[in-house]
Amino acid sequence: MIRACALLRRAAELIVGTLIALMFLTFVLQITIRYSARLGWISEALPFLDPSRYGWTLEFCLLLWVWIIFIGCAFVVRDEDHVSFDMLYSHVGPRLRRGFVIFGALVIAAGLALSVEPTWSKFYILRLKKTATLSNVFGDWIRMRDIYSVYMLFLITVTLRYAWTAYQAIRHGILPTHNVTEGDK
């Protein structure tokens, strides 16, 4: 199980890294087109640099950003990478700390699980909506549902992660990542 999770995490890191590189290249393309547009002779000499062909780059960067955030948060970012306000947590005993972990994980898992159905219902509507400019590049098959489908993956994955955290805390106590170090006291 641990090996499979580590493999999944590495794959997600590779995907996120690739999406970041793609977003950077698209951004560089945007800048190149923006500044070459001021020089009319460039688009006349090189028709493929005509600025009217590159309206899709902004929407593509936004699509990549959405995917980077949700894949990163679901698979790459660890619990200990989050900012936490643990002034109360660090001043209570291990038993109450365990209760905090269980309660917090269950609340997060329940909140996300309860939002799955309303989100899925909204996706039913989004299947009809096309993107403003990406259809010009990728064709008419791409819909808003496809762009935001990564959010469903995020909801399900993070729900399962926090349910697993609660289960582990109930079964085995708090994990070492949930313990407070001596320097924090």
Describe the structure in brief.
With 185 residues, the chain is mostly helical.
Structure notes:
The protein is mainly alpha-helical and 185 residues long. The protein has two domains: 1-77; 84-185. Helix content is 69%, strand content 0%. The chain has helices spanning 2-36, 40-45, 56-76, 94-114, 116-126, 134-138, 144-172. Helix 1 packs antiparallel against helix 3 (56-76). It is elongated, with a radius of gyration of 22 Å. The model has no long low-confidence stretch (mean pLDDT 85).
**CA-atom Rg in angstroms:** 22 Å
Terminal residue distance:
33 Å
Number of domains: 2
Structural class: mainly alpha
Strand content: under 5%
Average pLDDT confidence is 85
Helix content percent band: 55-70%
Principal-axes shape call: elongated
- Number of helices, where a helix is a run of at least 4 consecutive DSSP H or I residues: 7
Strand count, sense and barrel status of the largest sheet are:
none
Helix and strand sequence:
HHHHHHH
Q: What are the segments in which pLDDT stays under 50 over at least 5 consecutive residues? A: none
Count of extended strands: 0
Helix-strand layout with pairing:
Blueprint: H1 2-36, H2 40-45, H3 56-76, H4 94-114, H5 116-126, H6 134-138, H7 144-172
Helix pairs in contact: 1-3, 3-7, 4-7, 5-7
